[in-house]
Amino acid sequence: MRPTPIDKEIKLDPTKVIMSKTDPKGIIEYANEYFMEISGYEEFELMGQPHNIIRHPDMPKVVFKVMWDRLHRGENIHALVKNLAKDGRYYWVLTNFETKYDDDNNIIAHYARRKAAPGNAVYQIEKLYNTLLSIEKNQNEEVAEKYFYGMLEEKRKSYDEFILSVLDISSQDLKLYFLDDDELQKKTTNIKNKKGGFFKKLFS
């Protein structure tokens, strides 16, 4: 049984990474300690479960359709996602994926890295998600998808360009954001004090 959502947010540590590994169908095969700490689930509750065990009902289905369409093609996708913890609280993450292949170039796994989503980006994306969710409830997912791509066409942006504009950072800064903490320390010595640096933009 899914938990009942409550309007209380879990604040994530922006230096920590939530990691998971799923099979091509999204079944969880591994979750790191921070994943379990934040979600409130233990290993035996997560392993073998579909990743949507943490899907929040405030998330429009079309966002996950776009995500899985990309992943099935072996493409990375950055998305702002509202997740549901076991106790009903919520937390926002920014995603990053790596696809693994076998010797015959078949997809065998997806590795996901998630970090705290910047508050300014969440504020912007929530407006869009509320619209998409309303369309899904009153029409259907297909109509919501058409609206989503129509919005991108109006803005003359690809999905990736749109996400970068919401985050207000460059694609290079976004790559830095998902580095491990040790790598990040080395990379950001000359960045963190620079005017307009990605730390300042994401968490100012």
Would you spell out the secondary-structure blueprint of this structure?
Layout (H helix, E strand, L loop, with lengths): L17 E5 L5 E4 L1 H7 L3 H4 L14 H12 L7 E5 L5 E12 L5 E10 L2 H20 L2 H15 L3 H9 L3 H7 L3 H7 L10 H6 L1
Antiparallel strand pairs: 1-2, 1-5, 3-4, 4-5
Helix pairs in contact: 3-5, 4-5
What form results from the Cα inertia axes?
globular
Could you tell me the mean pLDDT?
A: 91
Which bin fits the share of residues in helices?
Answer: 40-55%
Order of helices and strands: EEHHHEEEHHHHHH
The biggest sheet, with number of strands, parallel, antiparallel or mixed sense and barrel status, is: 5 strands, antiparallel
Structural domains: how many: 1
- Order of neighbouring strands in the sheet with most strands: 2-1-5-4-3
In the CATH scheme, what's the topology name? Beta-Lactamase
Low confidence ranges: none
Per DSSP E runs of 2 or more residues, the count of β-strands stands at 5
CATH homologous superfamily descriptor: PAS domain
Structural class: alpha+beta
The CATH level-2 architecture is identified as 2-Layer Sandwich
Number of helices: 9
Describe the structure.
The protein is 43% helix and 18% strand. It has 204 residues and is an alpha+beta fold. The chain has a single domain (18-168), classed as PAS domain (Beta-Lactamase, 2-Layer Sandwich). Strands 2-1-5-4-3 form a 5-stranded antiparallel beta sheet. A hairpin with a 5-residue loop joins strand 3 and strand 4. Helix 3 (61-72) packs across helix 5 and helix 4 crosses helix 5 (141-155). The chain is globular. The chain starts with 17 loop residues before the first strand and ends with a helix.
